[in-house]
Structures are given as C-alpha cells and as structure tokens.
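note to self: dont lose this again. the chain is below, predicted strucutre after it. 68 aa total, dont forget to put it in the shared folder this time
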Amino acid sequence: MIPEQCPSCQETDGWKEVVNPFTTGIPIGKNMRINIGIVRTGCFGFYKVKYRCEKCGFEDKYDYREDK
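---
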C-alpha cells in the first residue's frame, strides 16, 4: 500500500510519485494508467512506482496494484 504521507518526515504535500511513462505508465486515476509503447506484463517491476519526498528526499518503490 502506498502511504498517504512521507514515511520519514510525515510530509503530505511534497510526497509525490515520480512519473516514468515508459516503465509504469502515466497515472490518470487512482487505479488507471496509460502505458506507452508496449503491453506490460508485471515482469521486471512494471507494477512498481517510485515515490519521492520533496522535503527530505526520502524515496521508495511501491506496488500500485495493492491500493485497489
């Protein structure tokens, strides 16, 4: 599950997904994404999204499918 705030400093406004349209797609809703180029199968971490805190720099990867 993706935390609503940074696990390190508890910042909510700066806790954002690092969007990479070629690996995880572009988020258009809570559980919807547009993938560019090829069909994703879940191999190689395609369901992992990276979140980074703009305040403290903490970052981690989470499986976005667990938020359903």
